[in-house]
Design brief:
CATH topology of the largest domain: TIM Barrel
Number of strands: 31
Strand content: 15-25%
Number of domains: 3
Structural class: alpha/beta
CATH superfamily of the largest domain: Glycosidases
Length: 619
């Protein structure tokens, strides 16, 4: 028997010739494993290797051939590292040559951190067709908007064709209903041709409940921990070496085979691991090694509610070495301030001071007591570059986990949505938009599933109702299993050309263009930004400083006018107007702000004005 260390074998099918493939599977719970090809009835015994691995090379297999693993002659299961599941999660795996795509992106370089503008989509609802290829037709819109990173919600194979992607059970298999591996490769190549990086959401804290056969192979899961979504993965118990390798291989697979530029790591606070080297840190080190070997630039973005700056602190300085983290505090602070909602986690937010803290320092909860969590939460990230925080007004969670999936514009109206957009796009940090946000999409984004198990469907319905109780939302949520719920979540692309929506779209486009061209608005040192309240109402002022001077941003999110005083007690300071949200091109009734301002300005309700300090005036 050959001696093999658990981390030394690549799992999944590897093409070794025109019609030959090498199959490797980790199945330490089994004595015998065979390959079974259902289309021909052919069966082939696999060679047992040390560490619980089994391997076999088979010929006369064209791409697309189906196969299963026969486990001890008792059950047949798809490949845990399947590259394609054409017959859904319970059917056989199929062979696909993920290395055979003819790439044209050899000169593409992802944007640096200060130029990252993320745009999150759900592939299945982003277009009427709901496929990777159909999304290509919308890329010119994104590039023209000023987006630089397309972020895909999880695409790993899930049950049915209606799912957010967090119920994936085949981490290596792009969803067949989206177009599988060829479709994903074409989408990434098309993004790169337009200067767009691609970020893929991956889930390494749990797997979905249906079609999850990993327990039949080995100790992929542990009963030492639980996550809100099911059993935790085994990253620190017996057999964990191969499990860790499985998921690290998965991350590198997306980067290598599909030229993905960045990974968004779902809920890293639920990746349970007490190893000396946490899985997240090992993943960061592995991607750094991949960069060094290939010369490609990649990046890792975490989702976490812990407000832990160690996630985005360099490994050399004692951190885990990720590049950025979703900053829920920014969303919650702005949302609670503008909507007045105080249910659930919004109970911790709502003041203007929270918005100032989120914009100026990153985390609102940086050692503060949280009434929602019931403990002191977070540490300060103010010393880190601002681009380590990804800020948003909407994302799949914050919209889709509302009982009725309302967009922000549906809650506060278009004038307030303009103020919110300016807060997002002009504040320090990397902005993230959610599909349709830029034109004020008011169709909901809802939670949906298409599980094949009726008992599981009913369990999901009950679970969703329990989740909403803390928010005190009224009414019955839409049925997550209904096809109508899925269809209702598609953005209406015709609206972007509708005069009623065109003003908000122009506002987003112009602010993103201003941000792209202004070093002050892209400045990542938080000391170069200052925020302060205006009057006793809902007014804010923000000054951004950089190589191009100083930009003054004045916001009024309230129904009453707000006075803005500028300048100092010293020599006069003059500001030249850049933008006024009241301009007709932005959907307003006509600009009100003077072209030049020195001392005082009255901001009308629901307005934003941008000024730049003129050269030659006092600094």
């Amino acid at each position: 028997m050959q001696r093999i260390f658990p981390w030394s074998l690549p799992v999944g099918p590897q093409r070794t010739g025109p019609d030959s493939w090498l199959f490797t599977v980790w199945a330490p719970s089994r004595q015998r494993v065979s390959l079974f090809f259902p289309e021909t009835g052919r069966e082939m015994a696999m060679e047992p290797l040390a560490g619980g691995f089994f391997r076999a090379e088979a010929a006369d297999l064209p791409a697309g051939a189906r196969y299963l693993f026969d486990l001890d002659g008792t059950i047949r299961r798809p490949d845990p590292a399947s590259r394609h599941q054409p017959d859904d999660v319970h059917g056989p795996s199929a062979l696909v040559d993920t290395a055979g795509f003819d790439w044209t992106d050899g000169r593409f370089v992802p944007p640096p951190p200060d130029r990252r503008v993320y745009y999150e989509i759900h592939v299945g609802t982003f277009t009427p067709e709901g496929t990777f290829e159909a999304a290509i037709d919308r890329l010119d819109h994104l590039a023209g908007l000023g987006v630089t990173c397309l972020e895909l919600m999880p695409v790993a194979q899930f049950p049915g064709c209606r799912n957010w992607g967090y119920d994936g059970v085949y981490p290596f298999a792009p969803a067949a209903c989206y177009g599988g591996a060829p479709g994903l490769a074409r989408l990434v190549d098309a993004c790169h041709a337009r200067g767009l990086a691609v970020v893929l959401d991956v889930v390494y804290n749990h797997l979905g409940p249906e079609g999850n056969y990993l327990r039949d192979f080995g100790p992929y899961f542990t009963d030492r921990y639980r996550t809100p979504w099911g059993d935790a993965l085994n990253f620190d118990g017996p057999g964990s070496g191969a499990v860790r390798s499985f998921f690290i291989q998965n991350a590198l697979y997306w980067l290598r085979e599909f030229h993905i530029d960045g990974l968004r790591l779902d809920a890293v606070h639920a990746i349970m691991d007490q190893s000396p080297l946490h899985l997240v840190a090992e993943l960061a080190a592995s991607t750094a090694a991949f960069e060094a070997a290939t010369g490609r630039r990649t990046f890792l973005v975490a989702e976490s509610h812990q407000n832990n700056p160690a996630l985005v602190t360099e490994a050399a300085a004692g951190g885990l070495g990720l590049d950025a983290v979703w900053n829920d505090d920014f969303h919650h602070a702005v949302h609670a301030w503008l909507t007045g909602e105080r249910g659930g986690y919004y109970a911790d937010y709502g003041s203007r001071e929270d918005v100032i803290a989120a914009a100026a320092e990153g985390f609102v909860y940086a050692g503060r007591y949280s009434s929602f969590f019931g403990h002191v939460r977070g540490l300060s990230a103010a010393h880190l570059p601002a681009d380590r925080c990804v800020n948003c007004l909407q994302n799949h969670d914050q919209v889709g986990n509302r009982a009725r999936g309302e967009r922000l514009v549906s809650l506060v109206g278009r004038p307030t949505a303009r103020v919110a957009a300016a807060l997002l796009l002009l504040s320090p940090g990397a902005p993230l938009l959610f599909m349709g946000e830029e034109w004020g999409e008011d169709r909901p984004f809802l939670y949906y599933i298409s599980h094949l198990d009726p008992d599981l469907v009913e369990a999901v319905r009950r679970g969703r109702k329990r989740e909403f109780a803390a928010f005190r939302w009224q009414g019955e949520p839409p049925d997550p299993f209904a096809a109508e719920t899925f269809e209702a979540s598609r953005p209406d692309w015709a609206k972007k050309d509708d005069p009623e929506h065109a003003g908000l779209l122009a506002w987003y486009r112009e602010l993103l263009a201003l941000r792209a061209g202004s070093p002050a608005l892209r400045e990542t040192c938080r000391r170069m930004t200052r925020l302060w309240p205006l009057d006793a109402g809902l007014g804010l002022a923000m000054e951004r400083r950089g190589e191009d001077g100083r930009i003054l941003c004045l916001f009024n999110a309230g129904r009453r006018p707000v006075r803005a005083k500028v300048g100092t007690d010293g020599p006069p300071v003059a500001y030249a107007r850049l933008f006024d949200s009241a301009e007709e091109r932005f959907g307003g009734r006509g600009g009100f702000a003077p072209q030049r301002m020195e001392t005082m300005l009255s901001l009308p309700p629901f307005s934003v004005v941008l000024y730049k300090r003129e050269k030659g005036t006092s600094i």
